[in-house]
Amino acid sequence: MQQQHRQPELVEGSLPVFVFPTELIFYADEQTSHKQVLTLYNPYEFALKFKVLCTAPNKYAVVDATGAVKPQCCVDIVIRHRDVRACHYGVYDKFRLQVSEQSQRKALGHKVVMATLRPSASQEPPSPRVQDEERRIKEHLAVSEFFEQTACHTESRPAAGGPSLLTVLLGLVCMAALMLPTLGEQESTVPVYLHLSINKKLVAAYVLGLLTMVILRT
Fold it and tell me: CB of 64 within 8 A of CB of 156?
């Protein structure tokens, strides 16, 4: 009889997790470094669910802290440092990426990624000092309490109270300008000095488009 090949039962915590890079370094004087990308790879024949935990969730914003990775695919996880202050220089935080099968809740494996904030890339030594390396290793091996990024499944923004009165008034002026007759129209009851050229209407339409974007974002 032909035997059916069954997927072996996976033990909790035994599945290797492949993440790159294995360490995140943010630089205070480089705005572009405040956003880092973690790439999670799934080389297996089955889909994986993932969850990102952190020892200092208030310092970071994680876009899509939970999600899924298709078999033999990868997914990018964007992490932003949102508390760039001198008091955080040299402090090592940890991110833990937990993975599990989509049909199960237990974590099949996890990977810890270290994160630290440094003042400047120009001050980086050519090679890490022994004391710094020992400290990093101790931080990596230390038992830490991880927290969920509950408020950061999407990038958080401070709540706004709606568009300002000036924005609304400027939008109404642009709409009124677009409704006025174009310069050169003969059959119009509107005074000639209120007729606008095509260029002025194009400017009004452009400004109105920008104002619409601002209002939708608020």
Answer: no
SS3 content of the chain, % helix, strand, coil (to 5): 30, 30, 40
Pair 113, 23: CB distance under 8 Å: yes
Cβ 115 vs Cβ 92: under 8 Å: yes
pTM, two decimals, is 0.56
Concatenating the DSSP letter of every residue in 116-153 gives EEES-GGG--SS--HHHHHHHHHHHHS----EE-TT-S
When pLDDT is cut at 50, 70 and 90, the band that residue 40 belongs to is: very high
| Helix, strand or coil, per DSSP, at residue 202 | helix
- Full set of structural domains in the chain with CATH: 18-120 (2.60.40.10)
Task: At 198, give phi and psi (nearest 5°).
Answer: -65, -40
